[in-house]
Amino acid sequence: VQLVQSGAEVKKPGASVKVSCKASGYTFTDYYIHWVRQAPGQGLEWMGWINPHYGDTTYAQKFQGRVTLTSDSSINTVDMELRRLRFDDSAVFYCARVRHFGSGLADSWGQGTLVTVSS
Amino acid sequence: EIVLTQTPLSLSVTPGQPASISCKSSQSLLQTDGKTYLYWYLQKPGQSPQLLIYEVSNRFSGVPDRFSGSGSGTDFTLKISRVEAEDVGFYYCMQSKQLFTFGPGTKVDIK
Q1: Do the chains contact at A105 and B54, CB–CB below 8 Å?
Q2: Would an 8 Å CB–CB cutoff place A117 in contact with chain B?
Q3: What residues pair up with B40 in beta bridges, in sequence order?
């Protein structure tokens, strides 16, 4: 099982960023993909999840309206787009897979993608 | 929103000695299905988080038996029976009863 994320990004305030998470080694549509943000020197913050089988999503209230998760089962990839970037969005973003709805059992994580928001 | 608090926020431990981290929830994490959705993750320096314990007390595959979890309702504990050098990092409790939230993390280092 592997979740491989796209590379680091540098964006200007107000721009959007899209981070991808490519899954391999398991049946892609059998697991939810969650996204977690970690600002520099800070803790973990859950952003949302997507069910690649049906495409349904749930987002943390903090990110509602600014984040969109999409999945493409033809290439086993989930994308996380964060819009209207602010300086405090600079963080490492992780994807993680979870087998069951409502479970917090994330048994495999991506390597993380650093997004830097800088003018 | 369910809020998780952890104590202590920092812990310095002599190798071979035990360590204990508390996680308290603002609401009971017991779900109507009878399960309690409380997890423990470890983030080692420079690494992605890794699952240690799921549903309060179940060790994840490959996790050494020196790690144990206990608790119920709103109060939970992670114990390391004999800390080893490889155990350094940040420990996070997490709940999934109502969406998902993490505790603030506890930094564990070696004396």
Answers
A1: yes
A2: no
A3: B53, B93
Beta strands per DSSP E along chain B: 4-7, 10-13, 19-25, 38-43, 50-54, 58-59, 67-72, 75-80, 89-95, 101-102, 106-110
**Among the partner residues B39, B48, B105, nearest to A104 by beta-carbon distance:** B39
User: In this predicted structure, what is the pLDDT of residue B66?
Assistant: 98
Least Cα distance to A19 among A69, A74, A64 occurs for: A69
The span from the CA of B66 to the CA of A90, in Å, is 36
- Mean predicted confidence (pLDDT) in A14-18: 98
Task: Give A35's DSSP letter.
Answer: E
Option in A94, A105, A110 nearest B39 (CB):
A105
Residue A28 confidence (pLDDT): 96
Structure tokens at A17: 């960023």
Written as six digits, the tokens of A116 are 């830097």
Chain B contact present for A45, CB below 8 A:
yes
How crowded is the C-beta side of A119, counted as CA atoms within 13 Å?
A: 5
Locate the chain B residue with the closest alpha carbon to A101: B96
Interface of B with A in 52-91 (CB under 8 A): 54-55, 60-61, 90
